[in-house]
Amino acid sequence: MFKRLLGCVREYKRPTILTLVFIVGEAIIDVLLPFITANLVNTIKAGAEISEIVKTGILLIVLAVVSLSFGGIAGFTCAKASAGFARNLRADLFSKIQTYSFENIDRFSSSSLVTRLTTDVSNAQMSYMMIIRIAVRSPLMFIFSIIMAAYMGGKLALTFVVVVPVLVGGLLMISRKAMPAFRRVFKKYDRLNESIEENVRGMRVVKGFSRENYEKEKFGRASDDICADFTRAERIVAMNNPVMQICLYFNMVFVLIVGSKMTISSRGVELDVGQISAMLTYGMQILMSLMMLSMIYVILTMSAESFKRIGEVLDEEPALTSPVNAVTEVADGSVDFCGVSFKYSEKAKKYALSDIELHIPSGATVGIIGGTGSSKSSLVQLIPRLYDVTEGSVRVGGRDVREYDIEALRGAVSMVLQKNLIFSGSIKENLRWGNPDATMEEMREACRLAQADDYISAYPDGYDTHIEQGGSNVSGGQKQRLCIARALLKKPKILILDDSTSAVDTRTDALIREGFRKYIPETTKIIIAQRIASVQDADMIIVMDNGSISAVGTHDELLRDSEIYREVYEQQVNGKGDDDNAE
Amino acid sequence: MPSKKKTEEIRQGSGNVNEIPRQKPKMDMGVLGRVLKMLWKAYPVLVPVTTFCILFSAVCSTLPAIFQRNVIALIEKYYESGDWSEASKEIIPLVLILVFFYVLSIISITVFRQLIAYITQGFLNKTRRQMFDGMQDLPIRYFDTNKHGDIMSYYTNDIDTLRELISQSFPAIIQSAAIVISVFGIMMWYSVWMTLVVIVGVVAMVFVSKKVGGGSAKYFVRQQKAIGKTEGYIQEMMNGQKVVKVFCHEKECIEGFNEINDSLYEDSYRAHAYANMLGPIIMNIGNVLYVIIATVGGILLTAEVPNLAVSSLVKGAGLTAITIDIMVPFLNMTKQFTGNVNQLSQQINSIVMAIAGAKRIFSLMDAEPETDNGYVTLVNAVVDEDGNVTETAEHTGKWAWKHPHQADGTVTYTLLRGDVRMTDVDFSYVEGKQVLHDVSVYAEPGQKVAFVGATGAGKTTITNLINRFYDIEDGKIRYDGININKIKKSDLRRSLGIVLQETNLFTGTVMDNIRYGKLDATDEECIAAAKLAGADDFITRLPGGYDTELTNNGANLSQGQRQLIAIARAAVADPPVMILDEATSSIDTRTEAIVQRGMDKLMEGRTVFVIAHRLSTVRNSDVIMVLDHGRIIERGSHEKLIAEKGTYYRLYTGAFELE
User: Fold this and answer.
1) Is ipTM > 0.90 here?
2) Structural domain boundaries, residue A384
3) B489 to chain A: which residues are within 8 Å by CB?
4) What total number of domains does chain A contain?
5) CA–CA separation, B581 vs B503, rounded Å?
6) d(CA B125, CA B39)
7) Are B328 and B354 in contact (CB under 8 A)?
8) What is the pTM of this model?
9) For the domain B2-15+27-42+137-365, what is the CATH code?
10) Considering the domain B420-652 in this protein, what is its CATH number?
11) Is residue A320 domain-resident?
């Protein structure tokens, strides 16, 4: 998995490698510097000439400048490499998600996908920076210092044989203990934030029921709980410092006592003063680099979770893909459901659709009626292959939808959704979603057919009128008509309207349907509606009930045969002209 | 969606008072001071104790260096004789002192690390709760005019910056500052001349920190903003995923994303590049300083320039020459000094970010809470045979308004009946943009009053005024004859049930959600309410029945099902007055017929305000008000309005498009 993620480094390999090179250079100088400064001090102590001091001084300054440039360049390339890595991760993730089917998205939930694209990528960026900056430098420093200590300290260096394992063991133990605690806390923390969001969104309900104090108490409890857990986890990690200090100080005391004894008893044969000082310095460096390593270990294990979550998204196989040798031409607008059963996920117990047998000839107008949860939308979503059937097959133009190239299939099937969505931008831009190359005349025509041209032309800016985010400056009915026009621009073989004229008044609704009949007779029209009036002149009306087809027929046939249909009809018509003027 | 549009309007109109400009990161010491003050107030004992421990451990970590040097001096002294038994008499006590300091240091560092962990989380908890508690008391206007994403980021990103500040930056600053100051003092003690050289170096370091650190902070703040923008784009596209798929618009989406992604990259790498370079720069200025000090020291040493030192001044020894005994420790101190200045400079980023974060948090805390001067309360009531109303502690199913009169100290009780009268009400969300003009509505107990009209006509606004989500500008609203301004808001709202178009459910079981309407309702009461609302049927078919967990605003339910639960929630509260704002908009006609029966039962004996697009829902109302641009243009029963053949008639016959 890590290999897969590292593949995202791509063009930032160069800055990454440069960072490593310069960091190594900087580290070498860092190890050399104490040597030369010690040398300088000795020169001064020896009462050498000024020129001597200046000579060493110049060498030191040169080294400082080199170290500065190395460090500076490494800092720069490292920032570039890690930010670039993050950019590639985000781009890859986003592109990958675009290939997802709804089944894939449902599996992750869209809010979790957003977190993966933002927080998790930020974590990955930080740890990448850590790895190439510190994770290389610290072991390097560690090895250098060990070598130097062994070289300088001789037997005295044996102290590290004791101290290093103790420190490593201690630090490992702490992070082992802290990690699960943190993981638990972060999960709880996410839930707390979700509940805040819920509260903010539902503030009208909270206030409407005067539940402010109840919410305060509920939040207080959750927050206290998290505080306690968090404190516990943080306190475990806080033990890092004392453990480190104990090892450091033990080393110092040991070196001072044993070192001075060795030096004095052997009169400087086994050890001299300079070596003791060096041992102290290197001891410090060894332990510091271990400390850094343990910090990185903690951060990396924590971000491993993020890496894992990113990897999951990248590794997910899109549930719907075009087959090899896909058919790219849709012959006509006929739709056949052959023994179709469907459920939204494998785990779901309940089938959303069962045993659907339905044959729609090309060019027919089909109405679908049914109550909430009767799976009307589920049925039509199978036609452009937004989901795949669980059993049976859906055929368009005589072929199984799974044989088509997805883009070709969706190009031939236009769907106006229940939840109308138009995006911020001009009306023209929104229409061009249907056909990026549409001419002005084509757009006009589509809008005329959808009865949208009148109101659009009435705007001072006409087709260039800007639509606010979420389409808040047009009414529901206008939005729906715009969406129909957008769908028409695709010149589809099959047009599906999923309850998409609910906010349009009855007269306009009738005009739209008449236009369909007159101008796009060869297109198959499938209309889901709440209003009987919207479907009663269809060639075929399907009555859905609880995931299966309850009845099929014309208006008159259904009035005679279908109890459900009759019930709805009577309620709407006999209830004294019960027109639902809007949703 | 009328409410959404309204929100949009208000947001634009009010000019976003609460939004804090995020562009200019500045060291606003006032904000920092306030954070410190809050911290101090939260832990008046522990904060000084912790500070003391940090200082103590700083001292403990500097002192041993002196003893170390003494030990080495002793080694040099006994080096010639090689007499360990003699030397150990002097060395061992020194080492023991050293051990003593080490032990103290370990203890103090353990204590302060533990304390910091405790204080940080405790403080964050307190702040979070203070924010949340304050937020519950804010008026609806605040939530209508602030983006929810922004409010959320106060609790996540901004709190995180405080965590960084308290757990990392504060201790590091105290520690480093203490060391810098004490080392500076010791340096002065040894040699003023050489200290002056150090000061020059420090000035250079401060200058660089300010330049580089400031640049870094600027880009960090920009990065934060770019992240927000990226998140917004992803969110919009995730919401519109179906449309994207239906139109095969994936490529365009990716292109749009790449653009935003690129600008995030730019800001991010600049921010980190500056931050990464600061360390090496400061460190190497330190190295150069070291060389300069060594050289200057060497010159002073050989030229035998008289040394000006605090130590000799104190001792009254006058000016003595610099010696090698001064030079060596001085050089070591220079190293320590610059190392700690570096430590300090590393904290600039997190301080700037924390100030920006704290500022936003304070903007939430400082937002004006909803005022409530109401003193009329709702109490359980008993009515005796003579019709006298008295208060009781038990639940009687009857309620009364308890109205204390300040003038004579008497208390009157008015039975809660649900009589709502609005007289000549004017209202505007934004000054100058009047939404309601002279609206008068009379609803007698048990009457059903319907509002019909286009989007933005003011239907929802009227209901917002009755429960005082907003306060009227002019006119009067009386509830059972009492001015609603006199009624305690929580009691007023308790007596009004509301069901909104945008259904909000909470994480928890279906049962929990219904019980939200009446916290002490039994399971049986909740189920009865669900049955009344026509929700029982689908709930029992859910995998877990009433114990089915709802998450993410009931994402696993259809919009219609969510509305049914919301109706059940209002039903269990059993209020005398109900407001149904598009409560059945997403329920199909057939289900609505079922719900309608329940609703009719629910509405029996209650005053009901109904807003509906579907005129069938409105038809059997006692009074229908047709609103247009904030004015009531027609009122009357369905039959009367149809007979008048006015706007209502045209709407009803479908000749007019609503919205």
Assistant:
1) no
2) 335-574
3) 210
4) 2
5) 10
6) 12
7) no
8) 0.78
9) 1.20.1560.10
10) 3.40.50.300
11) no
